[in-house]
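Explain this record to help learners:
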Amino acid sequence: MSLAIKRQISELTALPESTSIVPQIPTHRLYKRIRRNACKSSGALTSILGYVNLLEDASSNEALQILLKITDSMHFDESEFPVAIRKLVEHFQREPESAVRVKILSLFADLAIETGIDGQQLIDEVIKLLKVEKSAKVISQGLIVLEKIGKSFTPSVAYINQMVFFAKVKLFSPSHNVQRHAILLLGVFVLISDAEKESLELIGKYTDSPDARVRAQAFRSMLTLGDRGVQLPASLYPRACASLTDDYECVRREALNMVFELGVRHPEEMIKVQDSEQEVRLIDDAFGKVCSAICDLSMNIRTLAAELLGGMTMVSDEFLHQTLDKKLMSNMRKKRSLHERSAAHFASGEWSSGKKWADDAPKEVISADSVSLMASGACGALVQGLEDEFLEVRTASVNSMCKLALKNPLFAVTSLDFLVDMFNDEIEEVRLRAIYSLTAISRHIILREDQLETMLSSLEDYSVEVREGLHLMLGACKVSTKACLTLVVSKVLDVLLKYPEDRLSTFGCMQRVGQKHPEICMSVTPHLLTDHPFFDNAERDVEDPAYVCVLIMLFNAAQHLPAMLSLFPETIIKHYAYLRDTMPNFVPRLAVSGDTKELNLVGSTGSRQFLETLLSNIQRAYSAPQARQALLKAAQDDLDRLAEIDPAFSGTANFTSVFFGAQLQMEQLQLATTGQSIKAPIKECLLQLIKKCLMLQNLFSNLTTDDQLLVKQMCLRASALNLVLIVKDRSQSALGPCQLLLHIASDTSSFLQENTLLVADTFTSAILTKLASVGDPKPGRVYREILPIVQTAAPVVIPQINTNIKMCKARIIEPTETSYSAENVIKVTAGLIAAVPFVAELENLQQSQRQDLRLKVKYPDQNVHIIVPRKRDLKKVMTEQGESESQWRLRTKVLLSHGVWTEASTVEITICLSVKPNNELELCKPVKVHFAPKPVKRGL
């Protein structure tokens, strides 16, 4: 291991400093000391040859243990691999125990995946060993190993043909397990041109194998070939249909996938109906076969069939509508004309004898019950899926019904009643799926009064997600009559009294209802406002949520129908001004005072021009340090304000502001490295700089490669400053900062090697070159090498404008500052727990950051508790178009507990990202709640 490291360093030091090659900082150097100490403490060998040499005199059990130790280590000098592989092959040839031989082959696969060993050499060795092998278990493992080795790198065509030829030879093995893995290897590696000629037919023959696992693998390999680009012919369809009635679930599953795939690939292919001369489209027949699988005995097959139905959108309308009717339609039976029946009777040679009345009447040669263009299982298939006892089948059926309805408006109208019935399902997940599906197809339907009654009855559901989903659905759908709209408004307001926490969701619902029904809203305006034509009514409370809901709906309707403004009393106009200022996201701008002008910042013009001017002014002042720092401080305030008033440029402005803040901190710390005094404490400045670097790394997405390079260079400068100042201070160990600097340098070096078009600045190039030349990277030596570079570093390059940058941030909806104010204190017995409902919305949270989400609770005594929310509490926000890509909602409960307090005090709750141990980045300002743990009341 040490030899490999020294070789890399010597190669780096041989390069002149002016070369354009990016110096490489080996990442394993960071953990060299840790590994060495671990090896000494455990007594483990550090060479793979040390392990392999022990195999010569070991028994089978001992050899197995040695091989397990090799698998656990996986950190060896690559120069020893050729000798080690040769000795492992020799031991394989003389080993009598098949389990040990299996383990040796498995070790070859692990080495190919986790190390830089030559994969082609391993393929040659494995095939040579398997040619003389007799054990079916070992041969099966060898085929698995060949697949893993082949996937670990890109083998040449010669090696691919070598593996394919070996797999074809093993297809004739009497072992079913060997056949299965040989077919698997063929599906993964056979060349596409070869597969279309003969390999596909060869694999297809094994769908008639006596072993169910081989049959299933044959279908699976053909599907794999189809995914790789091989044209699957329609001639495979009868073979797949015959396997739908197989006794084994695994075969039926793969055959069902094959039927679906062929139906989608060849939708217009005409095939004959069984026991008939009639022809139907392949997609229609495949649709019927998949529908029949919904009646399968296996829950997994039924779920798969229900899922596949949603992808068969090219099916004919008559077949599609039949899935919602359990009685077969009469026009799906085979009918023949009188001329055809007479011709068939004449061809039979039978003539009337005259002895029996009407014995020469035309007769049906084919019974109407025996010939059907649609399998009986397709009748009411989706209804059968919706009524299934397993929630997985019901959920899949609802999803498929939604996908089919989106492509077929007539089917959407027909399926409406069935989706509404699913609102009464016992499982919350199924109810939510039905609600979201109905929301998705809302543009194709208009709700009737009887349907609304069933929907609105679900508004009192105990689940807040169901209620919010219904609010979203009601806002997306259109109603048919004035009575329907009145019913919706009255029910929504009644439920709001029962669940006041649904206030924001209800406001959004009434906003969308008003936007979609301006004419109907105009007709019910006097009724909703209780406006008398002759007498003035008392002014209503503008803080009443029910009254606010009505006003939001009417104001949004008046935006599309300005004539409604004449129906509003004078008090309503005053309330509009108040609500417009307090809730601008719910109340639109109306021409109530004659002024319709509104300031709009357009991201492509005003904001961008401001940013370009700001950056150009800073660029011109780069030669004057004092002027540059003054401009950077002023630019931070301007960028923060721009992020507030222009959401389109919010991410770009925040990114530039944080970048400028880090640059200011860095320039101050750079003065401290030269011995000059600075205003702020050095330790505090370092913490702020590290925090800003972590923000640049973790809170912003959609960065270009240039932006990523700037962030990495900024982090490299910060880590170099951190090491220099800590060594100068001499109050703490510099080993951790030194390893951090090496790690960041290695990451930056790898990034530059991957993106060869990028050019690093002079500071980064000098630091990487110096670190690559350090043989033993101890903190003192690294400090001496980088100190002159850090002291004379030029200012950082200004980032370019990237309008696609998004910043991860959060907004706490509940609790609010007023919900738990000094008049509404959370009281609990000291030592016990109070559960505070917590709801927050997050924007631009990456999928990989979900597990890093934390809740931070800070008590008045400065104790901080970090809470990990449950994964199921974080879900994507649903919109009328489906799940939002960038918005998440966290709905959980924060547990508060403390000792006795003399009086109520505020507890701060916020949401943050845990990017490093003891490093949390807050995504929003904390909300303060009043908390009062009371002493235990003693009984008499």
About this structure: The two ends are 75 Å apart (CA to CA). The domain at 48-273 is CATH 1.25.10.10 (Leucine-rich Repeat Variant).
